[in-house]
Write a structure and sequence with these properties.
Layout: H1 3-10, H2 28-45, H3 56-66, H4 68-90, H5 96-133, E1 147-148, E2 154-155, H6 157-164, H7 175-191
Antiparallel strand pairs: 1-2
Keywords: Membrane, Transmembrane, Transmembrane helix
Transmembrane segments: 29-59, 71-90, 96-118
Amino acid sequence: MSERQLTALKRPPLPTEYFFERFPWNNRWILVGIALVVSCFDFLAGPVVFFPILFLVPVSLLAWNCGLRTGLILGTVLCAIRFGIQYAVWGIPYTLSVAVINAVLRLAVLYVFTFLCAKLGGTLRALRARVRTLEGILPTCSFCKDIRDEEGNWHQIEAYVTSHSEARFSHGVCPDCAEKHYGDVLALKRSGAKQPRA
């Protein structure tokens, strides 16, 4: 087993995903199939149900897992199917302009919901990616504290962390190191004696 594989095995588990982010709920074609089944149920429900609430399920899952554009396309298709069935099969009990306004309102509500689901899903994936950036065991040199990357190259800790995150470094000297490395200077300063010039 290579060192890279061992390093991957030692890493802590990734942040958990929700059940609807896994197969089969993240498969585009399965969700389109579910949307078609929902359209069939909508047809069987008849013209009484004005807003097919079940459209939210496949559209929101598709927006979360596959992106905003895909969710909006599916939402548009489902609303067009609903309008076509209402117009061609059931007949519209009111004027065409009222039917169009109802369809546009349904589409607007579906678009807003789809937009929110897609943005929330994208934000959550971005946050997970940031968490994974500096997660796991970092092999460091016990003397100089440099970090070895996955390719076996050594990097200064500040350079490595800066290149793998948005953290920035500022340097100073802690009291213990000041005493260890500059103890004679600090002792002279405390005693009030003049320091010799080099």
